[in-house]
Design a protein that fits this description.
The protein is 78% helix and 2% strand. With 246 residues, it is mainly alpha-helical. The protein has a two-stranded antiparallel sheet with strand order 1-2. It starts with 10 loop residues before the first helix and ends with a helix.
């Protein structure tokens, strides 16, 4: 691994890494949540597709996360930092880490869920979960969206650019920890209801696992597969629960 576990770069490098990390996250949400979402909304409206249809929501979510990818590619090109993170076809060992990471998140989610239930606190919901309650078929459509858009896009931003920048300035351990906090807090934009802090804590814990997976494998595809697979698993469970209650 090229970086030390903990390091202290010069002041300029440390400052630039933090400013750029925050800027990339903000730009990703602006590009995906505003610019491309607006374009998709206009295009769907022109095609006569209503805002209450499944196609509308699926297209909107795909556009939002495409925006993440656009920002990442744009940043890497502008800064000429294509070596900020590694991408390769997963090996058998990488795939084993994908399975281990998925099981790790499953166990962590179960453990945190038990603690939350014992404390009697609530957990906020992602907006897509709320939308799907009135349109359960959306959950099925969100499975490929999670695998092809959500997982890869969020991992490119957080484990790719953000963690990569912070690693160069502070080392592996601080980078993983700080990126996980970024990742958890960023989810507040997609939450509804009370218990947002609890949800963000769960997301941050998931971020720790994803960050560690990248550092272990040095392949962004690994956390992307775990992230997308986990979200797809959740959507499948939501759909099954909705179907069983009909």
């Amino acid at each position: 691994m090229a970086s030390d576990y903990v390091r202290v770069a010069d002041t300029e490098t440390r400052l630039v890494s933090v400013v750029h990390a925050v800027a990339v996250v903000v730009a990703a949400f602006l590009m995906g949540g505003l610019v491309l979402a607006f374009v998709a909304d206009a295009a769907l409206g022109a095609a006569g597709i209503g805002r209450d249809s499944t196609v509308y929501y699926v297209t909107l979510f795909a556009a939002q996360f495409t925006g993440f990818g656009v920002v990442v590619v744009g940043y890497l090109a502008l800064r000429d930092q294509w070596d900020l993170f590694e991408v390769s076809v997963p090996s058998l060992k990488d795939l084993a880490w994908v399975v281990a990471g998925f099981l790790g998140i499953l166990g962590t989610a179960a453990g945190i869920g038990w603690v939350v239930s014992q404390l009697g606190t609530q957990t906020a919901q992602n907006e897509v979960v709320e939308i799907g309650q009135t349109n359960p078929d959306l959950y099925l459509y969100m499975i490929p969206i999670a695998l092809l858009f959500v997982g890869p896009a969020e991992e490119l931003v957080f484990r790719g650019v953000v963690q990569g920048l912070l690693r160069r300035a502070y080392g592996v351990v601080p980078a993983v920890l700080a990126t996980s906090v970024f990742f958890g807090v960023a989810h507040i934009f997609a939450l509804t209801g009370s218990g947002k802090v609890t949800y963000m804590a769960i997301a941050a814990a998931m971020g720790l696992i994803l960050g560690a997976l990248y550092e272990r494998t040095e392949n962004i595809v690994v956390p992307a597969l775990v992230h997308g697979g986990w979200n797809a698993f959740l959507f499948l469970g939501l759909w099954a629960t909705s179907a069983a209650s009909v």
